[in-house]
Amino acid sequence: MIDHSWPMPIRAFLLRLLAACAAAPAAACDIALVLAVDVSGSVDREEYRIQMQGLAEGLRDGAVSEALVVGEAALLLMHWTGSTRQQVVVPWTRIADFEDVERFAATVEQAPRQWRNFSTAIGEALAFAGATFAEVADCEKRVIDISGDGSSNEGLAPQAVHPSLAGGGVVVNALVIEGAEPELTEYFWENVILGPGAFVITANSYAEYPARMRRKLLREVARQISARGGTAGPGPM
Fold first, then answer.
1. What pairing do the DSSP bridges indicate for beta strands 74-80 and 86-94?
2. Under a CB-based contact definition with an 8 Å cutoff, are residues 138 and 25 in contact?
3. Which of 86, 175, 182, 217 has its CA at 20 to 30 Å from residue 226's CA atom?
4. Number of domains, the chain
5. Per the domain annotation, does 143 fall within a domain?
6. Helix or strand holding residue 40 (H, E)
7. Euclidean distance between CA atoms 73 and 95, whole angstroms
8. β partners of residue 145
9. Phi, psi of 76, rounded to the nearest 5 degrees
């Protein structure tokens, strides 16, 4: 259900998502994946670069790229930080071949940072990400892939958004970068992820981010190709 105390733009976005999901035709793509990157004040210039390059490298991984192509995936990149500061950086992109994967990865790698020095509003980020699925209602699976190095400290609580996301069939997975706060992985397990098979992968530092992102993407997309006759396996867990 949608809480009427939420800001009007978020309520409108979520209503669009629910309406689109209810009217969705038979799936033409296996998975729609929102890549939601934390650019809050706790992320410095080098850490931002590591995130974007690590994400691009993960998308270029052979097993990941094959899964995206065979599954006719749709990808979107967004940046998020405090309340009212969420932005689509690369809009929904349909993946039909390996050139599409490379173009998307290259755009991710070069994407300028949208904000710095703001708070961490995870609930607002999830609501914003959830609303974008109205544009890809033909995709069978809808996943928000959120990464972050801190707990929510502004705006809607993540769990407040869960009912609306669940109503739209959205799964939320997370990549947590430990170091800034104690027990952050546990926080994401208890408050952020959502849906059947949802999971958290932990990077103990930003140096571990690229390898952990590859692992996370493999877990999210490689299984999607089994029904389409692809060859990629699930990769190491």
1. antiparallel
2. yes
3. 175
4. 1
5. yes
6. none
7. 5
8. 35, 173
9. -145, 140
pTM of the predicted structure, to 2 decimals: 0.82
**CATH number of the domain to which 68 belongs:** 3.40.50.410
What is the rounded distance in angstroms from the CA atom of residue 171 to the CA atom of residue 151? 19
DSSP letter, residue 194: B
Q: Which domain holds residue 186?
A: 30-228
Tell me which residue has tokens 């996943």. Answer: 143
Q: How confident is the model at residue 117 (pLDDT cuts 50, 70, 90)?
A: low
Instruction: Say if 16 falls within a structural domain.
Output: no
Tokens representing 102 are 């490379």
Contact in structure between 52 and 37 (CB atoms under 8 Å): yes
> Quick count: other Cβ atoms within 10 Å of Cβ 167?
16
For 174-200, what is each residue's pLDDT tens digit?
A: 999 987 678 999 999 999 999 999 999
Residue 98's CB is within 10 A of a number of other CB atoms, namely 14
4 occurs within a structural domain: no
Q: Is residue 37 part of a domain?
A: yes
Three-state DSSP class for 74? Answer: strand
